Amino acid sequence: MTLLAALFSHYRRHPLQLLALATMIVLATMLWTGVHHLTSQARASLDQSESAVAERQQVTRADGEPVSVRDFVALRRAGLCVMPWLEVASPGAGRIVGVDPLAAACFDRSAKDNEPWRGELDGAPFVDISEAAGLAIGQKGQKDSQGVLSLLLSGPDSGSALPSGYRIAPFTVGPDTGELGESFLLNLDALGMLVLLISALLLRSVYLLGLAQRRDSFALLHRFGVPGRQINRLLLLEIMVLALVCIVPGVWLGRWLATGLGSGFGRALEGLFDTPLYAGQDGGWLVPVATMLAVVLVACLADVLRPLARRLSVAGRGQSLLPALVLLAGIALSVWASALAWLFVAVAMVFVAAGILAPFLIARLADWRAGGEEDPLSRWRHRELSVLARRLALPLVALQFAMAMVLAVQALVTTFESTFDQWLVQRLEADYYIEVPEGADASLAVDWLSGQQELAAGLWHRVIRGQATLMNSVGESGPVVDVFALGPIGPLVTGWQLFESVGAPWQSLAEGQGLMVNEQLARRQGVTVGDTLSLKLGHKAIDFPVLAVYPDYGRPAGEILIPASALPTDFETGFQSLSISPGTLSMETVTSGLKQIWDVEQLTVRDNRAIESLASAIFDQTFLLTRAMTVLTLILAAIALLLMGWVFFSTRAWYFRLLVVWGLPRRQAATQLTRLSLSLTSAIALLALPLGVWLTWILVHRINPLAFGWSLPMAVYPRFWLELGVLSVLVGLSIAVLMRRQLNSPASAPESASALSGGER
Amino acid sequence: MKRLFWLVLLPVLAGCPEQQEPAGFAGLAGVADPEAEVPFLQPGPGDRLSFPADFGPHPQHRIEWWYLTANLETAEGDPLGLQWTQFRQAIKPRLADAVPPDSGGWPLEAAWMAHAAVSFNGQHYFAEKLARGDVGHAGANAEPPAVWLDDWQLSELSGNGTWRLQVSADNWSYDLSLQINGEPVAHGDQGFSAKSASGEGSMYFSLVDIQIEGTVTLGDRTLAVSGKGWFDREWSSQFLKTGQQGWDWFALHLESGDKLMAFQLREEGGAFRSGTWIPARGEPVALTPGQLRMTPISGPDSYPRQWQLEVPDYGVSLKVSAPAGDYRNTGLYPYWESPVAVSGSHSGVGYMELTGYGN
C-alpha cells in the first residue's frame, strides 16, 4: 500500500494532469465510439437492405398485364411461395412499400434477419399491405401514382412449378445507389481510423509528459529497493484502472452522440436507399471497450512504440534522412499503386514520415532563423520554439493530422456534394419518368409524343436499356457493357458535363457518328476520345468512334450512350422508359394518352423533382454529420494541444520569468510568449496544409477510382484553409493568455531539468 | 377442446387499430368488447349447433378451427399419426351475412394459420402456413365443405360424404380420402362446451368415426396408409379464463368401439375438467368435472407423456402413453401433439395435445 501510495502521490500533487489524462481518454473514447457505432450500424443496415432487394425474382403475367390479387391467389393455391409487394408513392411519406408478413412466412427462414419486412412494420418504408393499398386507393384520380403490385418469388426452390400463363422476371428496387453508400461508408471508416490514430497520439503525449515528471519519484523508489519491473507492473495497473474507469463513460457518451446524430443519419440513408439503413439497434460494448483499452495501453505503455516515440522526440538530432525517404517512397507509391491495399500502405508511410518530419522541420527552421538573428530576444524566441517543437512533438503531430484530416474530409464532402448535385440535376433533367409496360410498343408512344404540339421539342426522350458485348481488335468477344440508348437527343441531355469530348459531341451523337462511354468503361478499357469501339449490339459487330467520356457515379458497370436510331433491329431490349418534361401540357394528358395507346390500366410514373429534392436533402443531412464528426476531432486535437501547451509552458515558466528578472518589461515578455506560441501553432497549421491536400487527392483521385471505378473532381477550398488558420491562431493565443497569467503569479523554484524529460535550456 | 393458438401474428400485424392484446395462452383469454358496433359473439349455454352452416366460418367469433387427427397404419402394420389443423383468428368481427371486404384492398380483418404433422417411427414432421383472410388463398366453406390455405386443402370429393385432404410440405406430403360416418357429436350442453366454472367456453362438435385411406410421402418414400380419424370443429370469442395456463386434451378410440374425449384446463390450484363419453351404442354423454380424473404420470414441468385417465361411472381406467420421440409442433406457439396408445381397462389408440408447458 505504501508503495502504491508513493507511486500515485504524483497525481495528488498534479491533479490537473490526472484530470487531463482522464478527460483525454473519455473524449477520445467518445469520439471513436461515436464514429464506430455509426459506421458499423450503417454498414450492417446497408448489407441488410441490399440483401433485401438484391437478387430477387418476381412472377409476372406472360401476357404483359399487371399482376393482381387474383394472380397472387392463383399462384399461392398452386403451391408457389410468392409475396405481394405493393409500392405506393405517398405525397407525405415518400415511397411506401406494402408487404404481407403472413404471406412472407414461406420465405426462407434462414434469411429472417436480413428481411426488413419481417418483424414490426413501422412504416419506414415497409407497412402492412392493407395500409399501402389504402394509400393507393386514396390517390386514385389524383395522379397516376397508385400502387404498383409485384409478386416476389421466395427463391429458386419456391415450391411447385410455375403455372402456365406466368413467367419469372428479375426484381429490383429503385436505382442502384449501393456504391454511393459504400463510398460514403469507406470515408467514414477512414475517418474512424484517423480518429483512433489521433487519439492514440494525444493520449501518448499527455501520458509521457506525466511520466517524465515522475522520473525522479521512480528513481527514488528504485533507490529504496523497489525493482524497476515492479514499478512497471504498477504503472500498467494504474493505466488499466484509469483506462477502464474513463473508457466506460466514454463509450456511453459515444453511443449517446451516435444516437443523437444517428436519428438524422438513419433518415438520411433510409431516404436515399429506400430501405431502413440505420438499424439503430444496440451495438455491443465489447468492441469499443477492448479497442480503446488496447489503444490506451499501446499508446501509453507499449515498448514497441518506444523507438517511434523516441524518434518523434529526438528527430531534431539529425535523423531525418530515413523519414524523408519514407515520405518520398510513400508519395511515389500513392501515385503508382494499383491496389487499394498498397494505397493504404502509402497513406500510412506518408503520415508516419510527415509526423516525424513536421516537428523536426519546425525545430530546424527555428534553429536556422535563430542563427541568423542579431536581436538576442528573437534568437531566444527561435531557440525556444525549436525546443518546444521537439518537446511537444506528439500533440503537434496529432493536431497536424487532425487538421489534415479535416481539410481532406471537408474537401471531399464539399466536392462530393456539388458533384452529386450536378449529376442528379443532369440525370433527373426531365420532370417525369415513365416505365414502358412490358409488351407495350414504345414506338407508338414516340409517335404520339411527336404529335403533341404543346410538348416542346426535345423535352422528352425514349430510353432503351440493354447490353452489348465489347469486341477486341481480333474480333473476339470481350466484356459485356450496359447500353443506354436515347432518342431523340435533345436539351434533356445536352447539358451533361463531359470529362472529355470531340467538338459538338451531342450533335455528332444525334447524327449517329459515334457513341459516348462512361468513366468506368473508359478507365477499365483505357478508352479515350477518338478511339473506336467495336460492339456487338445484335448479331453483328459495329464500329463506333468514341465521342466523349461522361461521369457516371454510383455503380461500377461500364456503359455506352448511343442514339436509339443506331440500335440494330435485332438488339435485345431489356427495359424501356420515357423521360418527359411536359411543359404546358398536363401530365394527366400525357399519362392518359399513353395509357390509351398502350391499352393499359396503370403506368409507373416517377416524379423526378420529388426524387431530386429528397436526394439533395438527404445528402445535406449526411454531409452535415460527416462535418460534425471531423469538427469534433479537430476540437479534441485543439484542446489537447492547448492542454499540453499550457502544461509544458508551465514547466518552463521559471525560465520565462527570467526574461523579466533580466530586465525585460513584463508586457514585452508576454508579447514574446504570444509570438512564441503563435509561431508554434501556425507552423503546424501550415505543415498540415500540404498533408491535407495530398490526402484529399488520395481519396478522390486514387482510392475512389480503385474502389468504385469512378473519380471525383479534385477541388481545394482556400477559405476553409483560412478558417483552420484562424483556429490555430486561437489555440496559440489561448496558450499565450494562460502563460501571461503564469508570468504574473509569484515565481517558484525551477523544477529540475531532468524532471522535464530532457534538460534543454 | 382443441387447440388454438392465436395467433400471434400479432407482432407483425402491428398498427391495426382493432388489434387486441393477447391474453392467456396464445391470446385465448381475450375478452369480447360488447360495446363495439359489431361485437364479437361469445357462445353461451343455450346456443345450438346448425348444420351444415357450422362447417363454415363464423366471422363474428374471434377464434375457430378445423382439426383432424388420425391414427393410421402402413401396409406393414406400423403405426403412423397424422394431424391437420386450420385456424382462423378474426381481428375485426363481421356479421355472418355481411359482404366481405374487397380483396383488392388486401384487407386485414382475419388471419389464418394451418398446421400439418406426421408422426412415424419416432420422427415428427411438422409444417406451418400463414395467410390473411378475405384475399382468397385461405378460407373455408360450409356447403360443400372445404377448407384451404394455399395448396393445402380439405374438400369434398363427391356428395357421398367422402372428403379429400391434401398437404404438401418441404420434403413430405400426404393425400388422404376420408369417409365420414355417423352424425356430428355435440360436446357439452348440446354443443356449448364450458371451459371454466365461470362460463367461458366454445361451441364444439366432432366427427368421431372417419375411415381414412391414402398415401403419406416422407422424403422419397411413399407409404400406403389406412386407419381412423377424429375431426373437431370449435369456435368462440373467449376460450380461456384469465389465469388458465394451458390444457391437456385427449381423443381416444377404444377397441370396444367406445370413444372418449377428455380435457382439462390447468389453473392455479387445480384444473377445470370436461369430456364426452361416446359409447359404441347409445347417445354420447357429457362428463361433468366430478366424473373425470386426469393424472399426469410423468411431469409436471415438461410435457407429461403418460397419463392416467379415469371415468369411474363407466368403468374406465386408462393408461395413455405417447411413443418415444419428440412430438412438439414448433411453430409460432410450440405445443405437443402426438398419437397415443391406450391400455388399462380398455385398449385403443388416440391423440393427445398438451399446451402451456413452455418449450
UniProtKB/TrEMBL annotation, chain A:
Membrane topology field: Multi-pass membrane protein
This protein's GO CC annotations: plasma membrane
Main localization, broad class: membrane
UniProt cross-references to InterPro entries, sorted A to Z: ABC3_permease_C, Membrane_comp_ABC_pdt
Full protein name: ABC transporter permease
Domain ABC3 transporter permease C-terminal: 192-299, 629-743
Highest classification ranks of the organism: Bacteria, Pseudomonadati, Pseudomonadota, Gammaproteobacteria, Pseudomonadales
Keywords: Cell membrane, Membrane, Transmembrane, Transmembrane helix
Transmembrane segments annotated in the record for this chain: 16-35, 190-212, 233-253, 285-308, 320-337, 343-363, 392-413, 631-655, 676-700, 720-739
Localisation per UniProt entry: Cell membrane
PANTHER family: BLL1001 PROTEIN, MEMBRANE COMPONENT OF PREDICTED ABC SUPERFAMILY METABOLITE UPTAKE TRANSPORTER
From TrEMBL, chain B:
A Pfam family of this chain: Lipocalin_9
Domain AttH: 63-237
UniProt-recorded name of the protein: Carotenoid 1,2-hydratase
